[in-house]
Amino acid sequence: MKDNVIWIDNPSSRALIVTIYNNTYQIPALAGIEISLENGTYDIDVSDDSTKTLLHHYDEIKIKKNGILNITNETYVLVNQAYVTKPNIHVNTKKIKNEINMGAYTYKGDISLVGKDRIFIPQCWTYGLKEVLSPYQEQNVDYATITKIYRKVDFETDFLRNAGREK
Prior knowledge:
This protein has 167 residues and is mainly β. The chain has one helix spanning 152-162; strands at residues 3-10, 16-20, 23-27, 31-38, 40-48, 54-63, 67-70, 76-84, 98-102, 105-109, 111-114, 120-122, 143-151.
């Protein structure tokens, strides 16, 4: 069987306990942990760490790829970004057409929301929740497109910082 790298994410303000196939994981508030799971189908329980109260029970979650275990039904932002190192490189602007509203802002670009009501989000990104992007991410190429997944709050903070308007 193949092992998959799974990030159990906890964007909530309280610590949680996740039980998967008789293994228990404590997930700190506003953090996550990385585990390995074999391909398979799992029942998953999520409990409050302080009260031990069961918050969610998920039946038969299929894991057959790396990804995020979305134990709090968080919505994530998936962004494709182009990095161009030479001024005469043509960027495909046909992809820059999506628009999403979050809070007081509208974001336009190759952007989408994923994860709401999905306990498992299969990996389709180059850079995960823990990884930070910089303007010089891809230095040895003329043009590259990378994909980054963010928690909504992290995306808004990063976007505002890069736009020159700290929150």
